[in-house]
Design a protein that fits this description.
This protein has six helices and no strands. By secondary structure, the chain is an all-alpha fold. It has one domain.
Length: about 180
């Protein structure tokens, strides 16, 4: 990643810890047939774990690994999220799956931007795409504010297995991480 080294280290810690926490939640989740249904939280935990850990590795080794690897990894994650969004589920679940698709598309965009052939001198951004970066910054900035406000206003016990302070804190951390990475482009 281009930008201050301290920012890179903090983002690796943030996204790596978030991805690990999602993996632990995934490991502790019951399969769909064992008791109460999880309403897609296993899929969300898996997508968030892959996104968090993949982001940490991309920040650490992004320049040393080929761009097509990142495009395929995050492209498959985004395609899986789109397929899941088209499947059964309510509006919130569908919106959450679409958010995963947007996050995956943003990661593909950042991977391509880091190694773009027509970069401005001293910048990782290819020419002609600042509008897309601005739109993604707006999206993830608003998402971080929204998820942070939901975390602060949560009252009482969680309404379901995919809700509560831990998943909401993970979403906030990943939203802030995506915003910071886009800002550092």
């Amino acid at each position: 990643m281009h930008g201050p080294a301290v920012l890179s280290v903090l983002l690796v810690l943030l996204t790596g810890a978030t991805g690990t926490l999602c993996l632990l939640r995934l490991r502790g989740a019951r399969p769909a047939g064992a008791g109460a249904p999880r309403h897609g939280s296993r899929g969300s935990d898996a997508a968030e774990a892959a996104m968090g850990l993949g982001t940490a590795v991309m920040i650490t080794l992004g320049d040393r690994l080929p761009t097509p690897l990142w495009v395929v990894l995050f492209g498959l994650l985004g395609a899986g999220s789109l397929v899941a969004a088209a499947g059964p589920g309510g509006g919130r679940l569908r919106a959450h799956r679409l958010h995963h698709a947007v996050g995956s598309a943003a990661m593909v965009y950042m991977a391509l931007a880091m190694h773009g052939p027509d970069r401005h001198p001293g910048m990782a951004m290819p020419t002609g795409l600042p509008v897309l970066t601005g739109l993604l910054l707006l999206y993830f900035g608003c998402y971080a504010l929204w998820s942070g406000s939901r975390l602060l206003t949560a009252a009482g016990p969680p309404a379901g297995p995919a809700r509560g302070p831990v998943p909401q804190a993970c979403r906030l951390a990943m939203g802030v991480g995506m915003f910071a990475m886009l800002l550092a482009l």
